[in-house]
Amino acid sequence: MLIAQVANYYGLGNTTTVNADGSWLLNVIACKLGRYSVKIIQNKHGMMPSKQVGQFIHTTSIEVEGAKSKIEGENVVRDICALLSLASMSQVVAFEFSTVSGGWRRLSVRGVSMMFRPLLDTNNGDSVVNFLQQVWPRYRKLKRPRKLYAVIDMLTFTDAPSRPLELKLAQLFIIFENMKGTYAHVHHIPFFKGFRKVSSPPKASLKKEPTIPFETLLKDMLHEVGMKPGIKRLIELRNEIIHFGLSRKPFRVLTGYYNNGQDIVREYLLRLLGYEGNFLIYSRASRFHKHLGRH
């Protein structure tokens, strides 16, 4: 069994731990992910967020059984941490690995704990288990071709403390660019100074083929998972910031665009991973939920 010490995840479990004095804690999530048996165990810091929010905090232990090697087990833990990061919108990272036989190693990692507009209600352990079990197969399949670890990592950083709104918007646009690029790659759309639509019959040279506009490719990507959001104004803002660095629009307007962009990215990732169920809406301060059915 591999045991990992993990930082920056806030939430409760769906299984109780009974203490010697008869008291109990709802601090354990036990689930099966593929052939791996997993336990996510919250300590008191992970169950009761304190003034340390915004810092690196040891909150969690993760136990994994079923891995054939230590490296495999560590990769499983990293994937679990990525999905917990997506669920909680906190920078969940493993910083120490050990085994029951006594071997261990400690890593130098970075990340801060956050409690700002999570994607799921992580105080509902059953919801977290449902999420992990649903998305696990597709995350493992798509994490490399769609660069999902990097997307989730950057998405959590957009809302890190003390970041200017224009910088948060720029990071959000980088996420859109990344998702658009990996979508084009997995669909074998050729690139030459821009993505190209191959004619029928093909032209003599790829550079003579027509380029696919950013908006068209992004719409195709979103339509593939059943989304048809309005993105025209968001793309106009992206072009303005790319060319001028700052926007002339009022702060209130920029905040609305940013909230809309967050909603699109979060729902897209859930749909891409095959999630069905409730999730919290960023633009509604994560106080209201939306339900995703089969799509």
Offer a quick outline of the entry.
The chain is an alpha+beta fold and 295 residues long.
Given as residue ranges, the uncertain stretches (5+ residues, pLDDT < 50) are none
Q: What is the overall shape?
A: globular
Q: Figure out the total of helices.
A: 8
User: What is the topology, as strand order, of the major beta sheet?
Assistant: 2-3-4-5-1-6-7
Strand content: 15-25%
- The secondary-structure class comes to alpha+beta
What's the number of structural domains?
2
Order of helices and strands: EEEEHEHEEHHHHHHEE
Radius of gyration: 21 Å
How many strands, which pairing sense, and closed or not: the largest β-sheet?
Answer: 7 strands, antiparallel
Mean pLDDT: 92
Please estimate the helix content: 40-55%
User: Cα distance, first to last residue?
Assistant: 37 Å
Q: What's the number of extended β-strand segments?
A: 9
General description of the model:
This protein has 2 domains: 2-144, no CATH class; 165-292, no CATH class. Helices cover 41% and strands 18% of the residues. The chain has helices spanning 44-47, 70-88, 125-142, 148-158, 165-186, 214-224, 232-244, 251-272, and strands spanning 2-7, 15-18, 24-33, 36-42, 58-65, 93-99, 104-106, 277-280, 289-292. Strands 2-3-4-5-1-6-7 form a 7-stranded antiparallel β-sheet. Helix 2 (70-88) runs parallel beside helix 4 (148-158) and helix 5 (165-186) runs parallel beside helix 8 (251-272).
